[in-house]
Amino acid sequence: xxxxxxxxxxxxxxxxxxxxxxxxxxxxxxxxxxxxxxxxxxxxxxxxxxxxxxxxxxxxxxxxxxxxxxxxxxxxxxxxxxxxxxxxxxxxxxxxxxxxxxxxxxxxxxxxxxxxxxxxxxxxxxxxxxxxxxxxxxxxxxxxxxxxxxxxxxxxxxxxxxxxxxxxxxxxxxxxxxxxxxxxxxxxxxxxxxxxxxxxxxxxxxxxxxxxxxxxxxxxxxxxxxxxxxxxxxxxxxxxxxxxxxxxxxxxxxxxx
Length: 257
Hints:
This protein is an alpha+beta fold. The protein is about 55% helix and about 25% strand.
């Protein structure tokens, strides 16, 4: 009786151990890679999974997006400007089996590829391109890094160059250049305004010269504007008087015969 009870206890204990070894829970953000006798047997989905103890072995791979921050790197652009650049890379595992079997440490490998690609691509770019076409460079970096990590089952979604640190001398030169550019635009705008004003005044003078009533209207408008100030006494003079004065002045200036 005692021996039978012991056998039952041993059997129950063995069943518990086997269940503990054979039951695996894969979380929603994981992929369970099964190796059966060292060979790939597939990837198990999230939830409760049963494996064969001792024969099967499960490796859980996190498939969430990983954020890798590239520390500031000092490099020389194509136009021989020394700068410091930092960036951030977002990537995630899309094939857990490849991430386990094709590379020893996919996170470290991806970070190193991102680092070397950043130095290579930015080293082939000019400073103006790096400052003005940031989106284009980010897209190019993401495409190149993703090509290298695709065999590992890793998808690089976004690469962003965060900041470009310039030497102080270069910052002063760029500030002076920007100030000169703004001053040049201001002078051009001022000159265009003066040209348009002179052209408009010329047209107005020709109209007034050819249309005497226009001169009379302008004269009256000027009187109204002056009277609106309230600090002057206005004595209206008929325009015909000016015509008479013109005749007198013309007679005085006529050469003697």
